Structure prediction request, 135 residues.
Amino acid sequence: MLVHRKKRSRYQIQTPLTSLIDIVFMLLIYFLLTTNFMVDEGIKIKLPQAKAAAPQTRQEITVYVDREGRTFLADKQVPEGMLFRKLKEMLGGQKDRLVVVKADRAVVLNKAVKVMDIAKAAGAGRLCLATEKDF
Prediction:
């Protein structure tokens, strides 16, 4: 009687997936955490939406107009009477500086236009009304 032994295969090569999965999860957590820190600082307003919104890259002066029509400059409330003087100081005679008006979408348009007129009278050569990109 002949007995044949079964041939056992030698060691199979396996790639270590645990370390690869760990690295992928660490990268995922890193990107999730860093995207949460990219937040615009300022007054909480809801900007009007537009299809052709483009980001601005140069240094600008931002004037906020909230829902109640109050004006803010650098996170501090500024009355309309003092807005002209503050903007004139910040512009310092530079005609090419951009003044961005971020008005809440619920504010009356007349209020936003009035703030833009004050900025133009203070010497702003470039004015912009901020919008939110419509998705």
